[in-house]
Each structure stands twice: as structure tokens, then as C-alpha cells.
Predict the 3D structure of the following.
Amino acid sequence: MTTLLSLPPWFPLHFVPASNLVGILPVLIVGGGSVLVLLADLAVPRRGNLVLPVISGVVVLGALGTAVGQWILNATNPVVFNGAFADDRFALFADFVVLLTALAVICLSPGYLRRRGMEEGEYYILLLASLTGMLVLSGATNLIVIFLGVELLSIPLYVLAGFARDEPLSQEAAMKYLLLGGFASGFLLYGMALIYGETGHTGLAAIHQQLLQGALSHSFDPMLLAGIALLSVGLLFKVSAAPFQWWTPDVYQGSPAIVTTFMSVATKVAAFAVFLRLFSATLAPYRSEWEVPIAVVAIISMVFGNLVAVAQTSVKRVLAYSGIAQAGYILIGVAVGSPDGTQAALYYLAAYAFMNTGAFAVLTILSQRGEDCDRYSQLAGLWRRQPLLAGLMALFMLSLAGFPMTVGFFGKFFLFSAAIHDGQLPLAIWGILTSAVSLFYYLRVILVMFTAVPDADSDTAPTLAGLSLEGTAVASSTAASVGIPAGVVVVLAGVGTVVLGIFPALIYTLLQGITVVHG
Amino acid sequence: MLFDYLPLLVFLVMVAALGVGLTFGIPLLGPRHPSTAKGLPYECGIVPAETARRRFSVTFYLTAMLFIVFDVEAIFLYPWAVLVRSTLHIFGLVEMTIFIALLAVALLYVWRKGALEWD
């Protein structure tokens, strides 16, 4: 890489080898883009213009292009900054998923923010800042860089969760997320301190070496195990796995739908990237110690998420509990620990990005002035008003449930088969059983959309009352507010869900060569 | 391995002993001559004018927050200024320029958003 950019000797960057900066180029682009959007917001203070989303979109596209370039040019030693950051294909794959999600969210944002009356420039600044943290996290190979990424990811999200400033639920979501998130950061940091105290290193590669020596001499240190446990708690909080999920339903429900879209998909992908890197590479020598706890957490998440989702009356809460259950499925891939498991988890993350972004995007589009689309009654009879949206929503629900011919089916298939190959049959059985339970609440959403006719008694939304008579009028007004970019995003998510469900090899071949580097 | 942490334990015991000793030792050993002036809340030496439990403008909160943000970040300038000529050279200059530029952007943002206006 250095030959690509040979700098003149007087140029100060030779103190930081240029290959380092090339390695973190996506992070630099998105971070710099965040500052650029901030300046643009000051220069063009008029509300509701398209300058900020366009700049944000171009920035994310640029980062995406750079990541693709890094994937193609993939250097033999993709570790930069003395082993503190890796731009290996594992990180780049996570980057792709996160960046594509961010691009989808940016396309959905202008219309949604206009309808909800929240057109503040800070939204895009915070979005890009949080995205920077996610890109840092996916490549982090040093405990301190991991913590930096987690905080950079979280702090803008705390603000975004409360972005609907005059809605009490949104305020509550922001407050809960901030307090519990700060608490989880404490766990994370304390775990890191204990690991550092025992191994004397913060770099993952050096910690790995220390653990190998410990594993060889069979001297498992309780303090090190406590450190690993606390670190896991901090990360399990971020991926919202049970029993560390208590914040998830309230925050997902209270936050504006567009923020929930970003939060539920991108945060989970970035946090799972670092989780996979830590457990499948760095902590592999201690696998006999962490395998069972992680598997137990996976089972609790699957059972809890799927069972509690059945009892929900809010669509956003259903998707929140579904997200907890999905975290449980992905944790199977972590617990399995083999390269198969890692690839299956990565595949599921990509699948999750398609179907969950799609599902939340439909809610985003249906959200009208004053409140998000959140109650079942607001979805009732959607098939008559918006056949395309209803069809796509049904597709995303089927995919989340794991129906064949959708991307969700192969996601689950790869995870369960990895578990079976690794001899962890109970994990696969629990996964299949809970998937069957999940059908109930996913199908209920579909049932409401296709059969129920909204009745005036249970529904307070004026736009839906008497729909059977004025259905066409409502449909046309809704269709006008969807907007082209948002429509394209939902349709593309739907196309991706089906195409990848029929040709899973499109992504799976990308994953074949991936090995996790840890500095 | 655990034995390596003995100095830490000694340190913790000393900290606890110092705290407890000062808290309970001073009332026991020190002379006490209470007077009205000594009982007043300390306000930089000025005689307190009125109760502290009154309402004040929320703008103070914003000003204080901005002060903390910029004040803490300015602290980085001092160690940098000591080292820039001897060790950091032009690399340090570039790094600090980027840092100051980001601070300037933040200041510009605060300014344009009207956070520096009192009303």
C-alpha cells in the first residue's frame, strides 16, 4: 500500500505511515463527512432542504466505495496502527452491511423527518458520527479502540433516541438508553481493566498469546475469567441479548422509527462484529470456559424474545422482542466458535440487515404527523390502501420468521447446521422450536394487514376512520408522501430478501475466504 | 499471581485509614471556638447576601456546559506546548492543527446556533 502513496519526505504524514491512514480510510471519510455536514448545516440553515441528506449519502457512498476497493486490493497484512486496527475482510464485510444500512436510512430520512416535523440538521451529523463509531468497532483489534468505538457509536444514539423532543416517550427512551448504556459501558471497561491487569496487554493479539500460554498450562485465572465475563456483559447489552435486554423494548418503541431502524440493525451488526472477533479469535483458547455461558444466553434470548413478543400490542415492541430473539440466533454462531459458525453469523447479520431494515422502513413510511406507525390498528387493512407496501411487509415478516425462499431461511439454516456440525444439537433444537413460536406473531402482523378492516371503535387515528369509503383518497395522499428514495429502499430490501433467499451463494461465497485477524 | 496485588491492598487500607482518621480525629483533637461568622456558608469571603435556594436563568447551565467542554479540551494544549519543540516536531504541529480546527468547528456551531447569546 505504501507504494501507492509515496509521500515527499518533508510531508509530515511519514510519521504516521500512509498505509495506516489508507487502512482506516472509511472511518476517516465518514468522520470527516460528519464535520462537513455540520458545517453545511451552518451554511444552509433553512429547514427541510435536501443538501444535508445528499451530502450524507455521498459521504456514505464514498466510504462504501473505499471499502470495496480495500476488499479487492486486500493487503497481505491488513493490520494497521501497530495492531490496533484491522481492515481485514471480516471487518470490511461488517462495514458493507453497516454502510448499506446507513445509506438506506439516509434515503428514508428526509420524507420521514418532514412528516414528523423533525427536520433538524443535527440528525445527519449524529447519524454519521454514530456510523463512524460502528466502522471503528468493526475493525478494532485493541481493547482501547473497542471502547472508543462503543462510545462513539453510543453517544450520538443517546441523543438520536430523544430526537422527537416534544414526545414524552422519546424523552424516556433517550434517558433509559443513556443511563443503562452508561452502566453497560462501565461493565465493559471494568472487564477490560481486569483483562489488562491479568495479561498486561490491551492488544488482542498479545492477549491471545497470553491466553494460549495459560491454556497450555491449564491455569485458568479467576480474575481473567471475571474480566471476560464483564466484557461479555457490556457487549451483550449492546446486541440486546437476554438477560441484558431490558432497555430494548422501551428504547425501540420510544425512539423515532427512523432512529430505531438504524439502531436495531447497524448497532447490532457492529457490536456483533467485535463480539465475533473477540470470541472466535482472541478468546478461542478459553473456549471451554465461555462456550456454555454464551450458549445459555443464546437460548434465553431465543426463548424470552419469541415468547414475550407474542404478548405485545405495539408493532415496534414486537420488532424489538424479535430483535432480541434474532440476537439469540446470531449468538449460536458465536457459541459454535468454528469458522462455519462465524460465517453463518456474518451471513445472518447481512440477512438481518435486509429484512429488518425493510420491516422498519415500512413503519417509517407509514408514520404520519404526530406519531409513529406503532399499533396494529394502524396496519389494519393496509392491503387495500397500499398493496405493494403490505406485500413487502409480509415478505419481511416471513423472512424474519425464516420461511423458505427468503434470506431469513438460509440465515437460520446456516446457523443451525453449523451448530449441528459442531455437535451442539441442543442449540439447533432450541432455535427451531422458538422459530416455530415466532411464526405466531409474525403471521399476526400479516393477518392484520390483509384481513382486518379498521373499525372506528378501536382506532383513534382520523386518517383511518371510514376507510372503506374513502380508501382511495387516503391511499393517494399516503402514496404521495412516500417519496421516490424511500420507495426504492423498501423495494430493494424486498428484492434483496427474495434474491438472496433463492441464491444464498451470492453472499456466502464472499464469506468463504474470511478469516478473523486480531492484530 | 494474587500475591502481586498486595501493594494494592496496602494502598486501599491506607486510604481507608486516612479517611476515617481525618473524619474522626479532627473533631476529637482540634480546638473548637464556634462563632456566627464561622457558621456561615463560604462564598469567596463575601458575606452571603441571600438564600442560595432561588431560581436562576437556565442560560447559566448552557454557559457552564460550554465552558467545561472547551476548558477541558484546552488542557491538552499545555503538555503539547511543552513537548512540541523537543519531541513532536511537525507531526505534533499537524495533529494539534487538526485538533484546534475541530474545536473551531465546534465553536462555530455553538456560535451560529445562538448558544452564546444570553437571551
Summary: Chain A touches chain B at residues 12-13, 15-16, 35, 38-39, 42, 45, 198, 221, 223 (CB under 8 Å). Strands of chain A lie at 79-80, 85-86. The first strand of chain A starts at residue 79 and ends at 80.
